[in-house]
Write a structure and sequence with these properties.
This protein has 183 residues and is mainly alpha-helical. The chain is built from six helices and three strands; from the N terminus they run ααααααβββ. Strands 2-1-3 form a three-stranded antiparallel β-sheet, with no helix packed on it.
């Protein structure tokens, strides 16, 4: 079974964005987009989270490894953010929150706080996943609501004793028509 990924970071772009052809070709290359989508997936984010947890446990017990496991989290969760920030900067000519998050990640790495950099990008990856799940549920709920809309209604004609109601298609209703709602 193929896992759903969070396309929130990969979507958009194209000729209508006004970006240079070189950058469009670079940022919209199928292999790069596929790789970034994989890194946005729940399984890849979970994988990165495990390494962030390992880094925390090592810090907690005052142990070290030659390479901090948080680097894996920075790679897995950071690449989609860097991709999004650069894509928005060069293709859409926009400064986004992803660029600011990338700056925080780079600053944390620069001052030697590898765990903090991993934590920042991991939290953002979790946020992107939660946002995508929420959007999916909202779209599903709206689709179901639209499907519940009636195709027919009762159109009321006449007044008082001469009042009659006939069943008509909803598409024939005009502004000002009187309708009868049935329980």
């Amino acid at each position: 079974m193929q896992e759903k990924t969070t396309p929130a970071l990969c979507e958009g772009g194209g000729s209508e964005s006004g970006g240079a052809p070189f950058f469009e070709g670079l940022f919209l290359a199928p292999n790069l987009v596929s790789f970034v989508r994989f890194l946005e997936s729940v399984s890849a984010t979970t994988f990165g989270g495990i390494f962030l947890l390992a880094s925390f446990v090592l810090w907690l017990f005052d142990r070290t490894l030659p390479v901090d496991p948080a680097w894996v989290t920075i790679f897995v969760s950071g690449i989609p953010l860097v991709y999004l920030a650069l894509k928005r900067l060069f293709l859409e000519k926009a400064i986004s929150s992803a660029l600011l998050i990338d700056m925080a990640m780079v600053a944390s790495i620069y001052v030697g706080e590898i765990f903090a950099a991993g934590e920042v990008v991991f939290i953002m990856a979790i946020g992107a996943i939660l946002e995508e799940k929420t959007v999916e549920k909202s779209k599903s709920g709206l689709r179901n609501l639209v499907l519940m809309a009636p195709s027919e209604t009762r159109l009321v004609k006449g007044e008082g004793v001469d009042e009659t109601a006939e069943t008509v298609a909803v598409s024939t209703i005009l502004p000002g028509d009187r309708l009868r709602a049935l329980p």
